[in-house]
Write a structure and sequence with these properties.
By secondary structure, this protein is α+β, with helices and mostly antiparallel strands. It is built from 2 helices and 3 strands.
């Protein structure tokens, strides 16, 4: 699952100046999370996570690669280390 999501999103993320560091699809407290860990040159700000979320949301909605409900969580690379 994670590799398919990476293939789907990595190019648009990179085209906008970010690096897709890691993709996780995990269950936490009976909820599924699609977690994208991103990075960029320079300092990461919360606005960067919002920007990437806004970039990938339409793609995920259009392609709908995950059958079940999930929460999209875009995080900075430091949170996934």
């Amino acid at each position: 699952m994670e590799e398919r999501i990476r293939e789907l999103l990595e190019s648009v993320i990179e085209e906008n100046g970010y690096i897709l560091y890691k993709v996780e699809y995990v269950k936490e407290n009976n909820m599924m999370f699609l977690r994208l860990y991103i990075d960029k040159e320079g300092i990461m700000e919360i606005e960067d996570c919002v920007t990437v979320s806004n970039l990938v949301n339409p793609i995920l909605d259009s392609v709908d690669p995950i059958d079940e409900s999930y929460i999209l969580d875009v995080c900075s690379k430091g949170e996934g280390d």
